[in-house]
Amino acid sequence: MNPRAVLALIPAFFLTVSAPGEERPNLLWITAEDMSPTLGAYGDTYATTPNLDAFAKESVRYTNAFAAAPVCSPSRSTLITGMWAPSLGTSQMRSAYPLPISVKGFPTYLREAGYFTTNNEKTDYNTADEARLIKESWDESSGSAHWRSEARKEGQPFFAVFNQMVSHQSRTMVWPYAVFKENVQSRLSANEVHNPAKVVVPPYYPDTELVRREIARYYDCVTVMDSEVGRVLAQLEEDGLAGNTIVFFYSDHGSGMPRHKRLLHDSGMKVPLLIRFPEKYKHLAPAAAGETVDRLVSFVDFGPTMLSLLGLPVPENMQGEVFLGPDASTEPGYVYGFRDRVDEVFDLSRSVRSDQYLYIRNYLPHYSWAQRSVYSDLGEIQQEIARYAVANADKLTPPQLAYAGSTRPAEEFYDVTADPQNLVNLAAAERSPAQEAALEAHRAAFLKKRTEILDLGVLPENIMADYILEEMRPIREITTGQSDHRPDLEAMWAAADLVGKGSREELLDLVESGDDTIRFWGIIGLRHAFTGDQDLLEELYDSMDDISVAVRLEMAAWMADVSEKHREEAIQVIGRELNSENWWTSLQACRAVELLGAKAQALLPVMETLYLQNRHLSGADSLFIAFSSGAFLKAMGMPTEPWDFSPKP
Question: In a 10 Å sphere around its CB, with 0-12 CB exposed, 13-18 middle and 19+ buried, how is residue 80 labelled?
Answer without folding.
Answer: buried
